[in-house]
Amino acid sequence: MTSPILRLNDVKTHFPVDSGFLTRKRTGTVKAVDGVSLTVARGEVLGLVGESGCGKSTLARTILQLVPTTAGTVILEGKNLTSATAGEILTARRDLQMVFQDPFASLNPRLTVYATLAEPLLVHRVVTAGQVRARVAQLMEKVGLSPQFMEKYPHEFSGGQRQRIAIARALALEPKVIVADEPVSALDVSIQAQILNLLAKLCREMNLALIFIAHDLSVVKHISDRIAVMYLGKIVELGPAADVIERPRHPYTRALVSAIPTPDPDRERTKKRLVLAGDLPSPLNPPSGCAFHPRCPYAQTKCQTIVPPLIPAGPNREAACIRLDEI
Amino acid sequence: MPLLEVTDLRTSFHTRSGVYRAVDGVSFSLEKGETLGLVGESGSGKSVTCYSLMGLVPQPPGRIESGRAMFDGIDLLHCPAAQLRAIRGKRIAMIFQDPMTSLNPYLRISEQLIEPLLIHQKISKADALARGLAMLEAVGINDAANRLHSYPHEFSGGMRQRVMIAMALITRPEILIADEPTTALDVTVQAQILELIKNLQSELGMAVIFVTHDLGVVSGLCDRVQVMYAGRIVETADTRTLFHSPRHPYTRALQRSIPSLQPKGRELYTIPGLPPDLSNPIAGCAFVPRCEYATDLCRATDPRLLPVDPTQATACLRVQAGEL
Ligand SMILES: Nc1ncnc2c1ncn2[C@@H]1O[C@H](COP(=O)(O)OP(=O)(O)O)[C@@H](O)[C@H]1O
Ligand SMILES: Nc1ncnc2c1ncn2[C@@H]1O[C@H](COP(=O)(O)OP(=O)(O)O)[C@@H](O)[C@H]1O
Ligand code: SF4
Ligand SMILES: [Mg+2]
Ligand SMILES: [Mg+2]
Predict the structure, then answer these.
(1) Rounded to an integer, what distance in angstroms lies between the CA atom of residue A147 and that of residue A130?
(2) Quick check: A188 contacting B, CB < 8 Å?
(3) Which one-letter DSSP state was computed for residue A250?
(4) Among residues B146, B170, B194, which one ends one of the domains?
(5) B292 in any annotated domain
(6) Which domain holds residue B200?
(7) Is B243 helix (H, G, I), strand (E, B) or coil?
(8) Taking all residues of chain A, what is their mean pLDDT, rounded to a whole number?
(9) Does any ligand 2 atom lie closer than 6 A to the CB of residue B205?
C-alpha cells in the first residue's frame, strides 16, 4: 500500500475552561478531540460522522492547525505539522484546504468571485498576473459555475452556488487534501446531492483526498470510501463505507444507522429501532470507562471502568467496544 | 365532517420586487386524530400554509388573498382576532424548527409552561404547576421536578424541543401543527422526538400536521401525505400508496432523489432545474420546466388536484389522462 497522504497519531485537542471572570480559575478541560489516530490515502474520501458536539469541527481545525494541538502529531506527506513553524504551516496550506458549512460566513461579502479566487493565486504566485483571469474562469467551470458570473458578489448567488465558490477557492492552489466540514448540512436535499456529486467528481479527477464531515450518515454513505464514526472526541468505529452502514459493529454506529428514517412505510413501521436515551453527554465531564455506556443498550458493569481501545473488527475494520464478540 | 377543512387558500407577499404567490390555491382536510404529512422543497409554501391557518403571517407584506379554513364552524382566516387567539393557545398548537421561536429566554420554563393554562382555563397556580410537571415528565425530561424552574438556555437543543412540545400540548389541543421540528436535530434526537410525538398523539387523540422536507421522516409517522410544489398541492395519498405508487412526476422525482434509494457508486440523481420564481404568474403546471413528460397542454392548462385512485389525488394532466 502506498504511504498515506495524511496521518494522525493519537491527536488530542483540549480546551481549558475558566470560570469567574476576575480570578480566571481553571475549572476544567473540554477534551474535544481525545486520542484520534487516522490515515487518509491519496485520492481517498473519508467520511467523518457523529452527533453535534462530538468534536468533528475541532478535529478538522486541528488537522489544519487552526487550533493548538494538545498532544499527538498531524503528518502531511511526511511533514509533522504539529512541530512546524508558522511559515511551514502556511506552505503546507497549499496542500491542505478547508471548506466550511456556511459559505456565506466563509466568503468575504465585499469581494467578487473573481477577487475571491484570484487572491490565493496571486498570494502564492501560482500563475502570473496575466494568467489570473483565465485561471479563475477555469476554476469556475470546474465547479459548475459559468465564468460570466465572475464579477458578481456572494449574496447574488444561491446557497448551493456559494458553496461551489467556496470549493473553487479551496481548489485554487491544487491541494492534495481537502477537509470539508458539513459542506452540505445547510443546503436543500436536491442541492446537497449536486454538491456531493461535484465533490466526488473532483476527487476522482484530481486524485484529491477528502475528509468529508457530516452529522448525518446517509449523506456520507454515497461519497465515502471509508467512514469513521466519532463519539465524544474518539473514533469508535472505522471501516469501508458500505460495510459500516450495512453491518455496523459498534452499538453507537448501530444506533446511528437505525435512527435514519427509511423512505419505506412498511419497513419503517416494523423495523426494530434502537432509540438512544438522552443527549450526547458533556465533554467537560465525560462518563467513565466507555464514554457511550450511559446510552448503550448493551452496556454491562465492566463498561463503566474499561476504556475500550479501537481494535480489529473484521477486514479493514476497527471498533472500540469491549463486547464486540458478544453482541 | 373533517376537523379542519381548508379551501382555496391563497397567501401572497407584496414586496418591492413583486408579488410572491407563496400559497397558490391550497385545499385539504384533516380528520380527527389523523397525522398528515406536508412535504416539499424549501420555499414551496409549507410554512406559509401553516402560518396562514394560525394567523401568524406578517401583514404587510403578507396578505391572505382568498380561502376558508373551517374548524368547528369557525373560519380561521376570517374570524375576529380575539377568537383566533383563543383557539390558537388552546385548541390548535404549533411547534417550530427553532424552539426559541416559542420560548422566551428570560422566563423560567415553569411560567411559560403554565401560562396557557392560566389564560384559558379556570385552574389554580398550584394545579397548573402540577400539570406542567406532569407534562415535562411526559415529554421525557429527566429530573423534571428540579428542572421545572430552569431557564431555556439551561437545556440542550433536543431538550428545548421537548420543552416546546410540552408547552404546545399542555392544553391538550385537538390539532398540533409541527413545522420541521426535527430538521435541525441529530438523527438520534430526531428519532426520540418522532417517537415522542407518535406516543403523545395516540394518548391525546389529537390530529397532527407534520411539515418536513424529508420524505423519510413522514414514512413512519404519517397516515397521509401531501406533496407541495410552488405553493400548490400536487399530490396527496395515504402514506403507503404515496411511497409504493407515486404518480405525479414531481413526487416520483423527489422519491428518486432520496440518497438511500439510489444505487451505490453512481452519481446521485438530482431533479434538473430550479423551482419557479413565485413572483411571475405561472400558466399551466408549475412543474413544466423540470418535467420530462411535459407537453404543450401542460404549459397551457393549470392541472387541478383530482382523484386518480380511491386514496390518491394527483394534479397532473397526463396522469389524469391515463398517459402516465
Ligand atoms: N474554542 C473552544 N473552547 C472551548 N470548548 C470548545 C471550543 N471549540 C469547541 N469546543 C467544545 O468542544 C466540543 C466539540 O465541539 P465541535 O468540535 O464543534 O463538535 P462538532 O463539530 O462535532 O459539533 C463541544 O463540546 C464544544 O463546546
Ligand atoms: N416574510 C416574507 N416576505 C416575503 N416573502 C416571503 C415571506 N415569507 C415567505 N415568503 C415567500 O414564500 C415562499 C414560501 O415560503 P415558506 O412557506 O417559508 O416555504 P417552506 O416552508 O416550504 O420552505 C418563499 O419562497 C418566499 O418567497
Ligand atoms: S401536468 Fe404535465 S408538466 Fe405537470 S407534472 Fe404532469 S406531465 Fe409534468
Ligand atoms: Mg461542527
Ligand atoms: Mg418552512
Answers:
(1) 17
(2) yes
(3) S
(4) B170
(5) no
(6) 4-91+174-276
(7) helix
(8) 91
(9) no
